[in-house]
Design goal:
2 copies of one chain form a homodimer.
Chain A: H1 10-21, E1 25-31, E2 37-40, H2 44-68, E3 74-81, E4 84-90, E5 95-101
Chain lengths: 103, 103
């Protein structure tokens, strides 16, 4: 699987390549702090749609956790749906999204 | 662990008891369609806080998934934070929330 664009340095590329090696992974997206996909193995439209929604959702989840306990912080958000599975890992600068097949 | 209130019938009680048997589970909540905790093993305040936030989040997640693919639907939402782990299973009438220790 080819990584379409990359402005992220070798560390991120290596991590993405490692995740993409997993047979169940459909693709990965790295979303920048402005909410745009920076690096992805998916097509641009899918990447853009996932980026917007998953980033909003991860912010919402983080805010909810902080309202329950102000010292808490979101580490991983996993959405299992009828068709796919998405894992969002938030960071201060970037969000990593992995879209997977249902196992 | 005692199930504080129960208006749900034996099926739900059995499922909750089975989940609570897991040593990592702090407590479970069944949230009704109005967003109020119906049955819980947690204290009322914690249950109410989790119910509100997790139900909103699960609706947001479901809407996001439907914007990506209108035929898709949320099955499980899992939030891993620094301190805890929460699993939300949405249903038409009820949401089941399980709060767990980080492993």
């Amino acid at each position: 699987m080819e990584i379409a664009q990359n402005f992220m340095g070798p560390g991120a590329t290596k991590t993405m390549a490692r995740i993409n090696e997993n047979g169940n992974v459909v693709g990965t997206i790295i979303v920048n702090c402005e909410g745009f996909p920076e690096t992805t193995t998916l097509d641009s439209l899918t990447a853009a749609t996932y980026s917007t929604h998953m980033r909003n959702l991860s912010h919402h989840a983080n805010n909810s956790l902080k309202e329950i306990d102000v010292t808490d912080e979101l580490v991983v958000l996993r959405l299992v749906s009828r068709k796919t599975e998405a894992v969002v890992t938030p960071d201060h600068e970037f969000h990593l999204i992995a879209v997977m097949r249902r196992t």
